[in-house]
Amino acid sequence: MDLGDSILSYLIVYLCINLFCMMKSTYVFFYAWSCIFYFSCNQVKQEQTVSNDKKTTGFELMNSSHTNIHFSNTLTEDNQYNYLNYEAIYNGAGVAILDVNNDGLQDLFFVSNQDKEKLYLNKGDFKFDDISESAGIQGADEWTAGVCVADVNGDGYDDIYVCCHLLENEEKRGNKLYINNKNNTFTEQASQFGIDDKGYSIHANFFDYDLDGDLDLLVANQPPNNNKTRQEILKPEYIYSNHFYKNNGNNTFTDVTNESGLFQVGYCLSTSVGDFSNDGYPDIYVANDYNVPDAVYLNLRNGSFQNITANALNHMSNFSMGCDMSDMNNDGWLDIFVADMVSENRYRNKVNMSGMNPAQFWKFVNLGFQYQYMFNTMQLNQGNGHFSEIAQMLGMSKTDWSWSAFFSDFDNDGWKDLYITNGLMRDVRNKDFDHLRSEFLMNKNNPNYQGERFNSAVELLNKAPSVKISNYMFQNKGSLNFENKTSAWKLNDPSFSQGAAFGDLDNDGNIDLVVNNMNDPAFIYRNTNTDGHFIRFKLKGEKLNTRSFGARAVIYINGNMQVQELTNVRGYMSTSEPFLHFGVGNSQIIDSVIVRWPSGKLIKKLKVKSNQLLELNEADAIESRGQFLETNSLQYTQEVNSESLNRISHIQNNYDDFKREILIPHKMSTLGPCLAIADVNSDGLEDFYLGGSAGFSGQLYLQGNDGNFLLQTSGPWQAFKGSEDADALFFDADQDGDLDLIVCSGSNVFPENSPLYNDRLFINNGKGQYTDGSKKLPKLSTSKGLVKAFDMDGDKDLDLFLGGRQIPGKYGLSVQSFILINDNGTFIDKTKELCPVLCSDFGNVSCGSWLDIDSDADQDLVLGGEWMNIKILENNGHGYFSDQSVKWKTDSTFGWWNSIVATDIDADGDLDLLAGNLGLNSKFKTSKEKPFSIYLNDFDQNGTWDSYLGAYDADGKIYPVRGRQCSSEQMPFIKEKFSNYESFAKATLDNILEGKMDHTVVKRVNEFKNGFFINEGKNGFKFKPFPMEAQIAPIYDFVVYDFNNDGKMDLAYGGNYFNREVETTRSDAGIGGILLGDGKLNFVPVHSSLTGLKLNRDLRKMKLIKVGNKDCILSANNNSPIQLNMIK
Questions:
Q1: Cβ proximity of 116 and 109 under 8 Å
Q2: pLDDT in tens, 816-851
Q3: Is residue 731 within 8 Å of 740, Cβ to Cβ?
């Protein structure tokens, strides 16, 4: 490990002692170990992991001549059944892995949309017999879709449930239940069991929701798919809702959809079941296509569910396809992946996807349909009721038109990998084809129409491109790192793939793959991995839940933990094996195994050998009271909730930055609020000022003896509410011993050089009562972002630095900053004399800190900002500053810096720098080799400023980030120059701006990571990123504090930025965090379930404040109430 043994030992001892002292039930044991293992295993792969340099993982596509599997989901379009009439016609079908005859070899069931289903009996060595006809499962002339396998009647044999879809004829939509006759034949009995659902079913999921020992049923339904009757906002018709059936225990089911709280009408494509709340009861994730939002259902343990989506998720996928619930980072909490339909290929993205419609986006947000984006989503379970979406950071947000998605450990290294299928038979969203289609359909009855005509729907559809691409495999490398291994593992066969399943088909301890392809033979992939050991569990339940769905297993090896929950419905329309499979790397012995059934009964085994299938029976288990990972009260902070605090809120004015600047990446009018802390009335209690936005005054709150904060209802700042507070600072402006207040003005709302950008100074009378002293400031009508006070010239009073943030309406252009010298309480602009580099186009300053960087007893200035490097302005001892960034080796650290805090991280006597940046969880990517760029100019000479983002593609050329539609809305010449989407998709940024580059300003950034700069004295600063847990969102502020009382500096951090343009997912994954330092430049992330921080709002500032005698963290959020966390 990178960390020293001392800090890890401390954490283990500290956690064990604290947990033991507060132990109230047996679950605490499991929770304590989970905390320890999180710290020890979440940094790097440990001893159990096979070295990647030696791995021989790969897959072999088995030939049908060997497998005897001759199946293809063949789709034939005609004038009735085609995409123009039914959008769902290309949705494909599922596949299931099951053991028909309980011989220990897993068999295969394939669904065909238009043809007969197929059942293949496994004979060993990847050879199968087709028993479809004799088994009685081929179906009739229904349009079948998904398949679910479960022992529905509890007789110990797998039964098969097939969903019927698409057709208007209700008699052909009744779902099928094939009951296993125990002789390789089946009898269809859905009607007898009461589950012949007729609601355009897509898939189903059997699980025990009430823990009564039998399997209940969730059926995923859709409204009619005929395009002529499709509704933008769906009517709540019961037949089209998902349906939930309670098992009566006597081979019948009762529809309890309404009673359970699961009524929802949407184009559901998949569901995933698992105990994401760790309370022992199964919860549900519902993935919906189109505009109806996905739903997160919490099991209330009383026979009903609660939709907690609004609180659990900050955003979600738009066209949600397949989903899976699994603990992908080995912290004991189930995470959720959802597939969508955006291509990672720049050309395919530009020709197949139009820009998102902002008006429609906000229409559905305002209707309560959540924030939906056309990207895959990876919802990281934070263990506190909230998920952070991190697919962009993990590099798995764009996998083309994706369907199935599931986790399993395909290389047996102890980390679950992710497999995703994708492919659409025709690129019907190709924008040039869409234009052709729309034009023809609009004019087909017009005799004067001169465009191309078509005699049939199929003839028209043949004009759409049809491109097969490969599915995706992402190897989990631990520590929130994944790598695309599709080609390396020989899974790059082009196809139109939909349903898929995983299982060990040859009992060799490797997980194989089965994929249902459209108009191509099914894929049977044999896993050829030769490295890495495994342990597999086959569980038997006591009651009717014979396969033990919902049971959990936890294994421990060398200080590492893995958790799995047994469910076989994963991904899309398909069913995988009903076993728990753990890869264990090089380990031949598992230290301990704990298996817990939904009933609460538990089996624990020690020193278990790897490379075996371990069969465990619930009848041999003992009773247990608690869960593995229930939320515990051992937390570093505790949020203080009170009505008075909830009333303290920042209100953001409503301004649409994108109306003037369509192509900017985010709003520049929502950078606040600012926050300043001080004891302004000398009563020994700290007070705070919360900045206001344009039209809303700033607010001063005085702390009372009871710890509550009282708003000062009158103050001179109210006269300036037309301005926007960009930053605020308490300091002694007039050397009278009390703290005055300066507020600098910013935002993007007002015109350039507006007097509303003038700053304000408020003079304290010593009792916390203020008067306007703004006349003592020069009138500087620049939009600013930072104010700092220090004695610049050594005359014992405090001077000011004011950082210019932006030129309104001209995103990205640099602006001047200012140095104001204090002359007996009046401030004089001395920028040109003392720091000429700040004049004109210095940068876009957002953060900074005073510190004596060169230990010469004067104060130097460190600054950061958007599209800026870290600037080191060194004081020559007489108040003259020069840019010494080259000397301090920060001249190439260009980023979107939000926060800089100077502190001595390594206790070596000099000050290092904590630096908050964009983070890695964004579609914007950069590196020193391939920097992210912006081109700034009025390219079309129409009087409006154009900001054009550019990014490197795989060919080493720079292409525009935005598409043809939105680019031409900002710069109309683009539509004239590139008459169709294909020509635009092929054009580099230089091609697009050819002949228009005169006077263009180009800026580049090469670093988006959050991290810290180590002060190495004469060797300058060296940047070191924070752990990946601290890269999931922008960091806007830090609090330095010794949280674990070990004498070493720790830090809390927080930040989000919600107001991105609608084609870019909101930066909303931040939940606040704590990093424990060891004094040796190493930081360990504290699991979010232990921090006590739930800072998931649009956080801008966080400050240490003492409330009464308690140290607290005060956080200020944009357009939301403040939050106060007491440090324990």
A1: no
A2: 999 999 999 999 999 999 999 999 899 999 999 999
A3: yes
